[in-house]
Amino acid sequence: MKIYKFGGASVKDAEGVRNLTKIVSKEKNNGLIIVISAMGKMTNALESIENLYVKGMPGLEEKFVEIKEFHESIMRELFNSDAEVFEKIAQVFQEIKNLTDKKPSMNRDFEYDKIVHFGEVLSSIIVFHYLKENGVTLQWVDAREVIRTDSTYREARIEWDTTASIAQEVFTDRQAIYITQGFIGSTLSNIPTTLGREGSDYSAAILAYVLKAESTTIWKDVPGILNADPRWCPDTIKISEISYREAIELAYYGAQVIHPKTMKPLQNKNIPLYVRPFSNPEEAGTIIHEVKDEISFPPIYIRKDNQVLISIQPKDFSFIAEDNLSEIFARLAKYRIKVNLMQNSAISFSIVADNDESRIFYFIGEMRNDFRVLYNQHLELYTIRHYNEEAINKIITGKEILLQQKSRRTARFLLR
Length: 416
Ligand code: ASP
Ligand code: MG
Hints:
- The chain has two domains: 2-289, 3-Layer(aba) Sandwich (Carbamate kinase); 300-415, 2-Layer Sandwich (VC0802-like).
- It starts with a strand and ends with a strand.
- It is of the alpha/beta class.
- It is built from 13 helices and 19 strands.
- The longest helix has 19 residues, at 60-78.
- Aspartic acid (ASP) binds next to loops.
């Protein structure tokens, strides 16, 4: 059994759905689970709905109509106007409507998952019906009934044993084709959860792990893993083969091609991961697997935008010592702030994090009770794996360096 994951960009329009159908049609009788993301930018759009809903702001109705119209226009291109799928999709929109007609609770993350998870439900229903109409026999599986999690909303943790036993019961036919949703699951008491933004890759890896799949393929809008993001680097090089270890490092530093949690389940069961170009399905892409001999790489560049540098100093100019550090980390954990880089000097401790303002400002506010806290926003964090002087110059020239760190293989720069 294989897992194919299709991201939002691969199903952003009717053309994408047709292309997916071509790829999947080649796999008849082979045993396949299709894991699908929300179409195009629909997760962002649902995030806006959630934001307007929770804050009770105007514009919710317009946004709702926009999302509905986006899906319906794709459906109009794919189906006859009397197709069953229109009714199914209308029911999901009714569910969203019913939710947002009620008053929100005080738990923001819970409200988020309740609304935002519907993007994948919608896309999977549309793709399921299109595949079925085009001669692919398959079953639609509700990931909320399979992927079971704890109640850490927006970043739910997998209940591995429960998920494994349900998945093994649901995906029994190893010659069949199934379609399910990435990114979403539910608690043991059936409350919808999400696994963190871009989490569909992780869903694919979870299913591969619990079902001991033969391989996982992530179909993307890039030729494979590149040595930089083509959105900001014009001359990229494709990397054909890399080890799990290297892929974990790249994902950790923020390479967006794979979700950071994806590698571990695959590595644990030695399941190869292919990253392949959706628009050129004949091309090999990149394989990530166990590599015996060391591979030599070109410099690999990773950029994280919208970073904040927070410098923390004890108010009395005492040293930064273990007791301060444990307090700082306890609060970082409390606000679920992900630290991308840290550095300390005698009287100051600096962290670089994603500038998720809702979390960062609460954190800074609380820290200021006990520490002097300064911060700088709108920074870029660059990581260069397998760096050399030329690669470094390419990145830092003309920029102000606020922090830098080098190890044997990795150089990192916080720039303005
Ligand atoms: N749709 C979700 C997101 O955009 C999950 C994913 O695409 O992997 O974050
Ligand atoms: Mg997406």
